[in-house]
Every structure is written in structure tokens, then in C-alpha cells.
Amino acid sequence: MTVPPAAGPAPRRAEPQSQLGPGAIEFERDRVPTMFPNPMFDQFLLLCFFALIAFAALSDIKSFRIPNRVSLALLALYPLHVMFSPVPVGWFMALSVASLVFMSGFTLFLCGMVGGGDVKLLAAVSLWAGSALVLPLLVIMGLTGGALAAGALLVQYARRYHASGIAGVIVPDASIAAPKLPYGVAIAAGGVYAGIQLLAA
């Protein structure tokens, strides 16, 4: 009589991998299952996110002001995103990251380096980005802001040349300042990247 071989240990089920891509910093301990996963409604919320940051960018271009209601609307929609997202959302770390961004931005605001509307918008967008996407958000924001600053310098030198010729370019003229920068555009650029990644998750 042949004795059947002893059954080995059951194979371990593969752990689901994150859809945010390799290299993303994630803290799974605060990723609780969503309460009401609804991909369609969550996509609608993300479209609202895109619309709000686009409105903020256009408002900053037009009047160099970002309405507080835009940042408040982003904050109000975020809990719905947490509840209806088809994938778990690390809301606790996202809240921590947004708080850190706000405190850092508020320090720059006190130093007169950034506007209050920029700080509030960036904190709200960082909340949506969370710990996994806040770094690329800041990188894209910085690159876009650098491009805006370079464009402003070109405009300033063009005005100096138009006013005084080549001497105006070589010798600084304090009466011709560089144009103001609508930094809400840079924040929106980073937010668009984060939103696209959330849509793809």
C-alpha cells in the first residue's frame, strides 16, 4: 500500500501591488478599505478637482488672486474621494503631508515670499496627492514655476531694451520691474499630474 506524500504548506497568496507605480512612498497601515467604492463617482470627483485647480490658475492669471472658496471646495470634496475611491486611500498620511506643506508655506508667507492663496491652494492639492504623489507634485510645480520666472525675466529685459536700448539690458533699471508671477499656474500643473495618477489608479 502506497502512502501518499504529506501535503506541503499551502502557497501564500501574492500581496496586491500598489497601482501608484514603483518607488512611491506608501504607508499601508492607514490604508483602510473604502466605505462605498464607486469608480464612476470617484472619477466625477476627480473631474471636479481638475476643474477647481484650472479655475484657480485662470483666476491667478487674470487678477493674481486665488479665491479661498477654491481651496475650501477641494478640502470639502476630499472626504468623498476617500469614501468612494475604488482603491484604499492613505488619508492619514495625506493629512499629515498637507499640514506640513501648509506650515512650510505659511512660514514663506510670513517672510513675504509667497501669497496666502498660493499656500492654501498648495496645501489642498497636496492633500489629494498624498504621501505617494506629493514629491512629483512639488517637482513639477518647481519646474513650471522656474519656467514662469524665466519668462518674466525675458519680458523684463525686453522692456529695458525697448526703453533704453542695449544699455538698459546691461545696466539694471529699478523702474522696470519683472512681471508678477501667477504661481497658481505652477501649482495647477503639479495638481494635474497628481490627478492623472489618481485617475489611473
Explain this structure to me?
This protein is an all-alpha fold and 201 residues long. The chain has one domain. 66% of the residues lie in helices and 0% in strands. It has helices spanning 39-63, 68-84, 91-110, 116-164, 166-170, 184-200. Helix 1 runs antiparallel to helix 2. The protein is elongated.
Looking at the structure, what is the overall shape?
elongated
In whole angstroms, the N-to-C terminal distance is 55 Å
What's the number of helices?
6
**Beta-strand fraction estimate:** under 5%
Unreliable spans: 14-29
What's the story with the biggest beta sheet? Answer: none
Beta strands, count: 0
SSE arrangement, N to C: HHHHHH
Mean pLDDT: 82
Question: Could you state the oligomeric state of the chains shown?
Answer: single chain
Helix vs. strand class: mainly alpha
What's the gyration radius in Å?
23 Å
Total domain count: 1
What percentage of residues falls in helices of 4 or more residues? Answer: 55-70%
